[in-house]
């Protein structure tokens, strides 16, 4: 999408081979906080979840006629989101606040849907969690984690949404990004087959 303000935007999916896990800000929106894909692979996916439009959530659909079941996938934070939560920025707060006691979180919800669009279950992944009694247990995810999809195995599609404890007048302040890789269906690994909204020039 192109706006009158002179910038473009995108949503849903992008492929990435970016490796910058130290530079803060929107200009580094396509890097994973790990600096690579799973097992140091060169490529992975990045998702941006456009706020306020639940009809355009990032979605992975099985190819028509594929009778395999979803098994697992891997996720982590993007550098942009992780460092925004770590240090705060002009839009979002530093997770934990000044005292470290603020019970902040950043959560990815994966909803499995049947072929007719009905939800059959959800799986949640905390990309950051500061709700622990002991601050030493607080974390912002900075590695790839494998997500078990056995509860969503029979789904025809997977829909991804994000929510955060840091919410303002216009919705979530935390950058609405996550990174994804190595989606597995019944022992066969694929990258993803997605509904996409193209990055504009």
Descriptive notes:
The chain has 201 residues and is mainly β. The protein contains one helix and 14 strands. Strands 1, 2, 4, 8, 12 and 13 form a six-stranded antiparallel beta sheet that branches. It has a six-stranded antiparallel beta sheet with strand order 7-6-5-9-3-14. The longest helix has 9 residues. It is globular, with a radius of gyration of 17 Å. The relative contact order is 0.27.
Q: How much strand?
A: 35-45%
| H/E topology pattern | EEEEHEEEEEEEEEE
The overall average pLDDT, rounded, is 89
Helical segment count: 1
Range of helix content: under 10%
Major beta sheet summary: 6 strands, antiparallel
What secondary-structure arrangement, pairings included, does this model have?
Layout: E1 12-16, E2 44-48, E3 59-61, E4 70-76, H1 79-87, E5 105-113, E6 119-129, E7 139-140, E8 145-148, E9 157-164, E10 167-168, E11 171-172, E12 177-185, E13 188-190, E14 194-195
Antiparallel strand pairs: 1-2, 2-12, 3-9, 3-14, 4-8, 4-12, 5-6, 5-9, 6-7, 10-11, 12-13
